[in-house]
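If I may wish for something, please walk me through the protein I am sending here so I can picture the backbone:
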Amino acid sequence: MTTVRQRRVGKGTEAAEDQPSEETNVKPDGKILPDPPGGRLWSILSVTVGGIGAISLGLLTSVYVATLHENDLWFSNIKEVEREISFRTECGLYYSYYKQMIQAASIQQGLHGLVYDNKTESVRTINILERMNVYQEVFLSILYRILPIQQYLEPVYFYIYTLFGLQAVYVIALYVTSWLLSGTWLSGLLAACWYITNRVDTTRVEFTIPLRENWALPFFAVQIAAITYLLRTHLQPAQEKLTLMVVFIATFLFSLTWQFNQFMMLIQALALFILDCLDMLPTAKVTWLYIIQISGLLLVCVLQFFNSMILGSLLISFNVSVLIARTIQKNLKKGGLLNRLGKLVLHVLLVLCLTLLINKFIKKILNLESDEHIFKFLKAKFGFGATRDFDANLYLCEEAFGLLPLNTFSRLSSTLLFYVYGFVLFLLTVAAVIVAFRNLSSGSNQVHLKGKMEEYTVTLKPEAAYSLVHTVLFGCLALSTMRMKYLWTSHMCVFASFGLCSTEVWKLILKCLHLYTSQRTQVIKYSISIITLLYISFKFWPGIMDELSELREFYDPDTVELMNWIKSSTPNTAVFAGSMQLLAGVKLCTGRTLTNHPHYEDKNLRERTKQIYQIYAKRSPGDVYGILRSFGTDYVILEDSICYERRHSRGCRLRDLLDVANGHIMDGLGENEPDLKPSLYPRFCEEIKKNLPSYTMHFTRVFQNKTFHVYKLTKHK
């Protein structure tokens, strides 16, 4: 197993005033008045200081995570094979395509090798650019080849520094989003500080560098920042067009770099749909955002050689359904409360039915089954019947796909983030309910409503309303699936800092307490924000310094020994079978052909993986040999950590999942379902080590250490 061990070594921020509110200099007829000269100068100074702060904190975050990565692995000192092994599981698979492109004789040859790949899945040629989101590796490898940096920077450093650099973009985008929501860059400063001090729960880039989400989330943050700006009122047409372009580019890049983009954007589309139905967002802008999501995804579909999983995505079906339903129901936002509620119920049912019909039709036409494992997993996870499906149970038993652990909230609370977040969430939820009820009861269209806004104490800007629903929906996703918490916790930093530094929030609180004055609001807002920043700084700065001074080194001698043996003792054309996670490393470190790998979004691969994993089930040696040879296997790698697994409880060990899927009773004490039967054969991975004739006639052990056992398959005539 890959571990890290202790390294052996020898000898007051002054808060700027709020930027002018977007309503401050607007005439009743909607025309914008010019700022006074002094106000414009102060605004320019504030933007300059805030911009410098955003860039500085972004770069500091980038350096911070890069230093943590170096200190944890001693990356600059370890061998190349150790560096590559440190890219665990699917990370190693993605990085292998970057390495493949770098080592190709030419860019054209490298691209040809990806489009006609026969080493990732044995006895099968696949198009990597269609199946996987690796355009970022392709772009980066081409950039490395054409830039004059080969003599100064190794390919691996160019790769990881790019990912760490994207963290700077991520933090800057979070900073800007919070700034736009609150009107003061102090809010952005607080959001960035919370992101850094809650690093354990906001990012994992320093130890899973090539993971798709580490490429995608910075672009998602940029998209959210652009949407936040787009939803502001009184934008000039040129500003609106430019912002829409930024939203499109960010959406496209986000979609291009992560295979789960469609599910994240579906949640975003649901947020827009809810707010549009409640008359809290401008319908025209929401329509543009629906169109941008569809067009961005379709462009990615074209680049991925018309990937059917994209065409069959729920996002496209949902967005198209909303646009169709809106055309059918033209008077959706007219009438009294009961009338509008009735129309909304019908609208929601119409959109839901259309979405399911369109999606079913597309999947039927395309014969699409690539994403069925996700829906099986969701069905089992939310209690819609137990399942023996191997793929669904494989996800259900992984901690990353379980519920968000409760200790997450204690960590977030230690920085005051969760307390502030809960407080702001409660206030804005109450405000949103009041505004939504008022909108539905108004019996007037949206233009007329804007003219009446000043009559009400409680208001909610469109961008704040979007941020509220966004954080609620992604919070639900994070609570149900721990792996998705990084989408929520980063926005939590934005949302909490916005609430703490927002004039509107403090104005609402003070008006409820009958203590409101403009001067008191400003004093409280800045005082509490600065006190919070000082508290975070004094409490967590020593811990960050200690963390940066802790030196460790990569240590995984068994895997290093295995990879070196494969490179030196097996032919380049050899085909290896084993666990998905290990084989990704085999491809990266040795370039050998694999039978299966961790990129699970393909039905044939999932069926193949289940068959390969019979090496850990109770099957006869003849059966296992036949399965492995059907995939052209020359060598099979058995891992003691899987064969004798203790990490998971009974029922969730890989061998248990295989036993249940095969209809066999599980090992160990405990209950079994009544229809499960004892197997006629012992467990293959245990019995093969006894060198019995029935096994040695098919398998010959050629390598062994404390962790791995490699067997060569006999080629019978």
Notes: The CA atoms of residues 163 and 209 lie 7 Å apart. Residues 37-73 form the longest helix (37 residues).
